[in-house]
Design goal:
The complex is a heterotrimer of chains A (264), B (328) and C (631). With 264 residues, chain A is mainly alpha-helical. Chain A has one domain. A two-stranded antiparallel sheet of chain A has the order 1-2. Chain A has a two-stranded antiparallel ribbon with strand order 3-4. The N and C termini of chain A lie far apart (77 Å). Chain B is of the alpha+beta class. In chain B, the strands form 2 sheets. A 5-stranded mixed β-sheet of chain B has the order 2-1-5-3-4. In chain B, helix 3 packs antiparallel against helix 6, helix 6 packs across helix 9 and helix 9 packs across helix 10. In chain B, 52% of the residues are buried. In chain C, the strands form 6 sheets. A 5-stranded parallel β-sheet of chain C has the order 7-3-2-11-18, with helices on one face. Chain C is globular, with a radius of gyration of 24 Å. With 631 residues, chain C is α/β, with parallel strands linked by helices. Chain C has 19 helices and 22 strands. Chain C starts with a strand and ends with a helix. The chains are: A mainly alpha (264), B alpha+beta (328), C alpha/beta (631). Chains in contact: A-B, A-C, B-C. Chains B and C meet through helix 1, helix 2 and helix 3 of B and strand 1, helix 3, helix 4, helix 10 and helix 11 of C. Chain A: Keywords: Membrane, Transmembrane, Transmembrane helix.
């Protein structure tokens, strides 16, 4: 349509010579900074906790922290519900089967990708602020092309959410305390986050061309779409509930405080 | 009340921010200020605009560093003593002042395969359900202001990606057609990945942030397209199936010539033109002339002297005075 | 300054890239003609995007009683019987096909339950008739046509290796003059806005689709492009304009805040339940139903409110009267001191339906008020008033082919720039279908005309040189007036003296002032160079605005009656005698505007039969009625 490309004497192809790298006057650096601090703090906490190898289980009430679920090494003791096929080793997390998939699920999540590409990789730090890198190939090659595997991490995350639900149910057999409530809140939020996933939205119905021919999947898609608009909030909420659940159980296991019991 | 503005003025050879103090009245938008400048201090200040109602997408500019429509940025959103800086959009070559050469977008538009009407469905017989067209309708709200294209760091900060990357505007176009209930082209996903550079997108969502129509570009178009690509490309079972059934070639029947009864038996689609090829001698991206040169009634560009002149000219029609070195 | 002129050869040159222009270009290309599209702004930005309501076509999807005859009747009624009947007939008959065709280009209209194109109610239309997409139908239409052109270019690319080989868009290019070879069109002369370089198109057929003239008015919904270029080009080429006195003032334009003054509030706000109130809170439209419409409109608020849910058994609310009636009513309320602070009246949907429903049915209106005016229409009423919106008059054309009448050959016109179709007042939704129907016809017949030619006309070098000199004039002249000041003065003259309500004294005053302006415009100068210089561009356009304004003022002075878009305070009645008269403008050798009366073509008898005699009696003279009785 346009003809400027082939027209002789159509002028140079230079961009406007604007000296400032960005002319934004608002505090555009605030959001990436908060993300950087938030994610950094959480990862540090989680790493420390995963390699502590203790204070993860409250025997009396069957509280198991999600960071150690399912517990499958020889260090588990009574927390093991699916056997202990792995030996005890300080580099091996107790939830060795699930943690890598959970990590993968969050790492390839469409929201977290935005968050860490902006806050950690500065590509770009904020809109209309220059990229921190000279060259850029996006997610077209190794290793970032594996971001496309998000869907498989989602399948794994569903299974893990089932296990977490089982943990909550199992803990329920001993009565009801504040720990149970925290476990349930965590599990519900985890489900909400998992189901609000963009891949889930696609699988639920997004891939269809004709919604009108699949009314049930359309309703499911509508439901997931509603959740999906809150994917970012849920991503942060679950980071919070995970850390809180873990911390509460750590405190109980270490006898820093006792569980507030409602029944029994 | 007068307020302080800085407006970038210049062209491809260079330019800088100029200071202006302009009267601002209640209820005005940035484009009003540009117009006041044109009517008073700077009559030749170049700026695109049309509808002044956020419907045509012409007045894209960067206001205090943010890509925005001039007509949709109310002056009341700034502090009274704040300096407002207005610059052209950065990603595209400058023409003059606030006007840039956005031809990149029109070139990319031409490369996106068009809607392919379903075979054997007569006009008037199209039946679609509202729930099926709604997703595509969202993308058709696009007013082509190209702010998303401008803000996308893939080309904003890396000019070298321009050939391989179509940008958010054309991802939503691909998504629109892929979700169109009656589009007959079997596969646009492969195209989006291979030719539009969908993989370059790292979903940092700036396109969605700047969209004046509030189209959820990332959540509703780019991510679903990425997922659809995963269906085809990265799903091991589907991949195997396609290899075995050889269903990975793009069909080309969307390029079937269109037909029209025309008037008085003038058949459709048949070039019966008497005019020469209009272009000079267009060269493609590879620097070669395209094949149309050979079938054109006349090769090469038009004569700058007009068609009706043949050389050599008869001597009596040439005005020529032989220099006489002896005369002063 | 260089006067290098780039030359191009085409079969059909389409000036204007709005709906009509694009549709004409598609048709010319489908007929195998090399086609150029010339657009003053970027491709796809034309004013058509502003049309919100929809495209009227009697498809009968929502109410099966609808058919072309009803649509024809509504159109004639709306235009107060001054319409060119043949155009109205073709329009009503062909509109559905044109809409369906758009779907094959990829358009996605809103759907009915059974999957057909949904249709909505609109002022002046008896049945729900407007195919629509939310309230951004114009955008859908232009985008669809734009994408169809791209798809044609892709076909050409597949065949020839060049996208531009058969259809090429010259965007940001302005045509300043048409070139003739004797009486035949030989080409067009213009410039690239971007570089200021000149171009010459050699083409035996030119289709004008340049839209309207709204920029000559202070309060207008039109964009800067609407400077009457096509009207002026046609006049100078020897064509004629008809009925230029009929301008439609859209009743509901935004009046607050000042920056958005004139921007439209779509009629569907009223179609979907919005009501007009004055500062006393009164729903005043019930007082303004004219006798000719008495039968079709509700008399009480209760009946009007029932209509929204049960249109078959109730009469429609008076808010849905044709646009001119509503505009005049608002004007009278404001003049009587019952207006809003900003000089308009209140249009209220907030008390009529729940917020979600407003957002769903009027998404872009909600968006527009929120973003532009910081007004939440779900919570408070809008302030609206009349704004110059559409010109019913235009180039006088042959109804079937769109060929311009007058002395010129090879000139075609379609869309707003052509006249006759809408009579004295256009119904909402009829313009989008008008674009498609007559755009197609103009493209088709321009192609046929090219085929019928023996030899190609050639533009003369003298004319080209003269056109270049005129275009460079404002840059060469020193010390002349600022074009922006001149435009403001012109807008003031037209807005104040040739506005909605007109008087003889004011009109002759306006003509005098226009004469003065003409001298000043001839002396306009622009600073800066040729590269993208808006001051220079405006200086060139001023000449067009001026000559068209003169036609409007002259015709308005001549027509001594009130009808549709022309209201004379001194002649408030509609006169059956004047219904038989078209006012035709042409340009004399000296550059003076010449006005003459021509009879309106007589409608065929079978079309008269579509109307009740009692209705015809309101419009026709005794003599005409007697003649009808005799048949």
């Amino acid at each position: 349509m346009t003809t400027t490309a082939t027209r002789p004497g159509g002028g140079g192809k230079a961009r406007a010579a604007i000296a400032a790298r960005t002319l934004r006057t608002d505090r555009w650096w605030l959001a990436p900074l908060v993300t950087f601090i938030g994610l950094g703090a959480w990862v540090t906490y989680a790493t420390v906790r995963v390699f502590m190898h203790k204070w993860f289980f409250v025997d009396e009430y069957h509280y198991l922290t999600p960071f150690y679920s399912p517990c499958i090494t020889d260090a588990c003791g009574d927390a093991a519900m699916f056997g202990t096929p792995l030996p005890k080793f300080f580099l091996l997390p107790e939830a060795a089967f699930t943690l890598p998939f959970l990590l993968l699920f969050r790492l390839t999540c469409y929201y977290y990708r935005k968050a860490y590409y902006r806050a950690f990789w500065l590509s770009p730090p904020a809109c209309a602020v220059p990229d921190g890198h000279k060259s850029y190939s996006g997610e077209t090659r190794f290793p970032l092309i594996f971001q496309n595997a998000h869907r498989y991490a989602f399948y794994a995350a569903v299974i893990i959410s089932v296990i977490n639900t089982w943990d909550a149910v199992h803990a329920q057999t001993t009565g009801l305390g504040l720990g149970n409530v925290i476990l349930w809140v965590n599990v519900i939020m985890l489900w909400a986050y998992t189901l609000s996933c963009h891949s889930c939205r696609h699988i639920a119905g997004g891939r269809l061309k004709h919604f009108s021919k699949h009314p049930v999947r359309y309703r499911f898609w509508t439901f997931v779409s509603k959740l999906n608009t809150r994917h970012m909030q849920l991503a942060w909420i679950t980071l919070g509930t995970l850390a809180l659940t873990d911390f509460y159980i750590m405190g109980l296991a270490a006898d820093w405080f006792t569980d507030l019991r409602i029944i029994n | 009340m007068k307020r302080h503005f800085r407006v970038w003025r210049g062209d491809a050879s260079g330019g800088d921010l100029r200071d202006f103090d302009v009267e601002v009245n209640e209820g005005e938008v940035v484009l009003d200020i540009i117009h006041r400048l044109q009517a008073t201090e700077a009559p030749d200040l170049a700026c695109r605009w049309n509808c002044k109602a956020g419907k045509c997408g012409s007045c894209s500019m960067e206001i205090n560093g943010k890509p925005r429509l001039g007509c949709m940025t109310r002056m009341s959103t700034f502090e009274e003593n704040e300096t407002v800086t207005i610059t052209p959009i950065r990603t595209f070559p400058i023409i003059r002042d606030l006007v840039t050469d956005v031809s990149f977008n029109y070139e990319k538009a031409r490369q996106t395969p068009a809607f392919a009407p379903p075979h054997g469905v007569a006009p008037g017989e199209y039946r679609m359900q509202q729930v099926d067209v709604e997703r595509s309708q969202e993308f058709r709200k696009c007013i082509e202001c190209f702010l998303c294209q401008n803000t996308c760091h893939v080309i904003r900060d890396h000019d070298e990606n321009k050939p391989a990357f179509s940008g958010p505007r054309f991802f939503i176009r691909a998504a629109e057609l892929d979700m169109h209930p009656l589009d007959a082209l079997p596969d646009r996903k492969e195209y989006a990945q291979a030719s539009q550079g969908l993989g370059f997108c790292n979903i940092t969502k700036c396109c969605t942030e700047v969209c004046p129509e509030h189209i959820k570009i990332t959540d509703n178009a780019i991510i679903p397209m990425k997922e659809r690509v995963v269906d085809r490309r990265y799903d091991p079972l589907v991949w195997l199936g396609r290899k075995i059934l050889r269903r990975d070639q793009l069909s080309d029947d969307n390029m079937a010539p269109s037909t029209s009864p025309g008037v008085a038996g003038t058949s459709g689609g048949v070039p019966s033109s008497r005019a020469r090829l209009p272009e000079g001698a267009p060269v493609g991206a590879d620097g070669h002339m395209d094949i149309a040169e050979l079938v054109a009634p006349l090769q090469g560009g038009l004569s700058p002297f007009g068609e009706d002149i043949t050389f050599p000219l008869p001597p009596e029609e040439v005005t020529y005075n032989h220099p006489d070195p002896g005369r002063k | 300054m260089s006067t290098r002129i780039e030359r191009h050869l085409y079969d059909v040159v389409v000036i204007g890239a709005g709906g009509a222009g694009l549709r004409a270009a598609i048709e010319a290309r489908l007929a195998g003609k090399r086609t150029a599209i010339i657009s003053k702004s970027l491709f796809g930005k034309a004013h058509t995007v502003m049309a919100e309501g929809g495209a009227a076509a009697a498809m009968g999807n929502v109410n099966s009683k609808d058919n072309w005859m009803v649509h024809f009747r509504d159109t004639m009624r709306g235009g107060k019987f001054l319409n060119n009947f043949r155009m109205a007939e073709l329009h009503a008959k062909e509109a559905p096909e044109r809409i369906w065709e758009l779907e094959t280009y990829g358009a996605l209209f809103d759907r009915t339950k059974d999957g057909k194109i949904s249709q909505r109610n609109f002022g002046g239309h008896e049945y729900p008739r407007l195919a629509h997409v939310g309230d951004r139908t114009g955008l859908e239409l232009i985008r669809t046509l734009q994408q169809k052109i791209v798809s044609l270019q892709q076909e050409d690319f597949a065949e020839t290796g060049s996208y531009d080989s058969r259809i090429r868009v010259f965007q940001e290019t302005t045509v300043t003059e048409l070139l003739l070879d004797g009486d035949r069109v030989a080409g067009a002369f213009g410039y690239y806005r971007e570089s200021g370089e000149f171009l010459l198109f050699e083409a035996p057929a030119v289709v004008l689709a340049t839209g309207g003239v709204g920029r000559s008015y202070k309060v207008t919904s039109n964009s800067w492009e609407y400077t009457g270029d096509g009207h002026a080009l046609a006049l100078r080429a020897g064509a004629t304009l008809i009925n230029m006195e009929f301008l439609q003032f859209h009743p509901t334009g935004m009046v607050w805040p000042p920056s958005v003054k004139g921007i439209l509030v779509t009629e569907s706000v009223r179609g979907d339940g919005g009501v007009l109130r004055n500062s006393e809170g009164k729903r005043f439209m019930f007082d303004y139903v004219p006798d000719v419409f008495r039968k079709q409109y509700a008399e009480t608020e209760e009946e009007a409110d029932r209509w929204y849910t049960d249109p078959d058994n109730n009469r429609r609310p008076p808010e849905l009267l044709p646009r001119d009636e509503v505009a005049r009513a608002i004007n009278s309320e404001v003049k009587a001191g019952r207006g809003s602070p900003a000089g308009g009246v209140y249009l209220d949907v907030s008390t009529r339906m729940p917020a979600e429903q407003i957002i769903r049915r009027l998404p872009s209106m909600h968006h527009q008020f929120k973003e532009l005016a910081d007004v939440d229409i779900t919570k408070e009423p809008m302030e609206v008033g009349p704004t110059c919106h559409y010109v019913m008059g235009g180039i006088e054309v042959d109804p079937d082919s769109g060929a311009a009448l007058g002395t010129v050959q090879g000139l075609f016109a379609a869309g707003e720039v052509s006249g006759g179709m809408h009579g004295s007042n256009r119904l909402g939704g009829n313009s989008l279908s008008d674009l498609l129907v007559f755009g197609k016809r103009a493209g088709e017949h321009a192609s046929a005309y090219v085929d019928s030619l023996g030899s190609r006309p050639k533009p003369s070098k003298v004319d080209v040189a003269a056109a270049a000199e005129v275009a460079l004039g404002p840059l060469v002249r020193e010390g002349g007036e600022n074009p922006y000041t001149l435009q403001q003065d012109l807008q003031a003259v037209m807005g104040d003296l040739v506005g909605i309500i007109r008087r003889e004294g004011e009109l002759s005053d306006a003509l005098k002032k226009l004469q003065e302006l003409r001298v000043r415009v001839a002396n306009v100068s622009a600073s800066g160079g040729r590269r993208y210089n808006p001051g220079w561009h405006l200086a060139i356009d001023l000449r067009n605005m001026l000559v068209v304004s003169e036609c409007t003022a002259k015709a308005a002075l001549e027509r001594e009656e009130s009808r549709g878009g022309h209201t004379r305070e001194d002649f408030p009645k509609m006169s059956p005698e004047w219904r038989r008269v078209n006012l035709v403008c042409s340009l004399e050798e000296s550059g003076e505007v010449h006005l003459e009366r021509k009879p309106v073509p007589r409608m065929r008898n079978e079309l008269f039969d579509l109307f009740e005699r009692s209705e015809l009696a309101k419009y026709l003279t005794e003599e005409e009625l007697a003649e009808l009785e005799a048949v």
